[in-house]
Each structure stands twice: as structure tokens, then as C-alpha cells.
Amino acid sequence: MVEQNATQPVVFVGGAPRSGTTVTHELLCTSTRTNAYHPEISFVLPLVNSYALGKNNWSNHTNAFFAEPEHFRIHVANLVNTSLQHVSLVLGNPEVLTVKNPLMTPKFPVVRELLGERTRFVTVVRHPYDVVRSRQEVAKKSEQEFNERMARNTARSYNETYAHLDNPILEGSLFHFRYEDILVPETIEGLRNFTGLTDLDPDKVGVKESAPQKDAGDSNPWYSPKYHGPINTKSRLSPLEEKYRKVVREVCAPMMERFNYTNDV
């Protein structure tokens, strides 16, 4: 089996849903070396998941179709590469392809195993209070009840999203930062150095033209009025209620301590 020749660098943007992945993606897309901002590549995630599933079922199922695990890895890598090559073509074949899908974030180690050295990963971390509060707003727009159980599940998902931060397979290929620090000069310079997109410019966020897209806009409960505007890290929502803060503190205490989210504000 021969792996496809895919050498174009790819930067994957991730983080918990509602953590600032859109504005981070938009920031990286201000570089002239990469593509315009575009929607999430959600259709690629099932391919990545299929590799994890196939590995877990190697002895029961997958080994009936592949002589060895490496052949299976190459098979799925070719599928993912084909999809990324299509995305790149649609976006004008940039020097560096920059894509995002928050739900792919926990699978970043799997993506690295599949695609190897061509991959880089940028993860944005946001205060879990704000993430849970934003998810509460999504539930409200979707006409769904939001309760303490949902808050706990969201907090658990938050932790799972960031479990990859300490995975050794990502050593040297992962850059992470706090959403609250996106405009700090050290963060901008760190992103430039890490991605090689040395001309990225926070002042161009909301200015550089996006790729053509069909956007549901306000009819989409996940849509934020902050999208495609200047960077603004100030919360547009009221603070999270104390009963939900208590749940978040119980579940996310280690992450809150790690990223200095210890002040209860």
C-alpha cells in the first residue's frame, strides 16, 4: 500500500465549542500564506473517528481486511488526505492550509498519527464558566431546557476536549493559549512563530474577505454576533449563575487551576 503524497502543511484549530475557535481561525486566516476563513470541516471528523474505531476493533473485525495495522492507517490517511486536498483546492491551494472543527479537538493525537509531520495544532482554552454560559445560550435559542445535569455534562465535555494537551504524540506540534490572552503580544508572536504565518494581523480580523459560504446566520442557534467582526474578548452574556458555577468548579477544578481561572468572577 502506498500513502498519498501529501506534503502541504495543515494547521488544525481546536478548542471546546464556544471557546473562541472561530476568532482564532479567523486570526490565522489573516495571513497571506493561508486560505480565507471558511466553515468547519465537520465532514472530515467521521474519517478520523473511523481510524480510532478500527484500531479498537482490530482483533475482532479490522484485521480481516488489512494485513497489518500500518496498512489500515495508510488506508484511512489516504481518505483524510483526499478530503483535505479537496478543501485546499476549493480554497485556492494555499501554501499553508488552515482548518477548524472544535469537535475534532479530542482527536488531535489521532490526526497526528494519521498525517504525521505535515500537521500543526492550535488549541484555544477559555474560562469554563464562559463556555458553559454560552452553551446555555445555545440551548435557550434551541428551545431546550438547560439544567444542572446539562451543565455537568458540558463541563465534563470541556475536560475531555483538553485531554490532548499532555499527549506526548503532540510534543512540538501543539500550541495552546487562553482566549482571554488572544490580543496579548506574546500570544500573537507565539502564533506567528509556531505556524510560520509571520504576517498574521489581529487588526485584519473581520476585514479580510472570507471564502464563499452558505451561512445560516441568526437562524443557527450556534451563531454568534461576534463572528466575522473585530476581536472582542469581552463577554456579551450575563455571568453564569452560581448554581452552575458550583458544578463547573467541581468538574473543572484542575483545568481552572492550570490556566489560572481561580478567581470566581
Tags for this model:
265 residues, alpha/beta
Q: Give the number of helices.
A: 8
Cα-based radius of gyration, to the nearest Å: 19 Å
Cα distance, first to last residue? 55 Å
Which descriptor suits the 3D outline? globular
- Which class do the helix and strand fractions yield? alpha/beta
Largest sheet report: 4 strands, parallel
Widest sheet: strand order? 2-1-3-4
User: pLDDT under 50 segments (min length 5)?
Assistant: none
> What is the helix content?
40-55%
Number of extended strands: 4
- How do the SSEs run, as a string of H and E? EHHHEHEHHEHH
What does the average pLDDT come to?
Answer: 92
Strand content: 5-15%
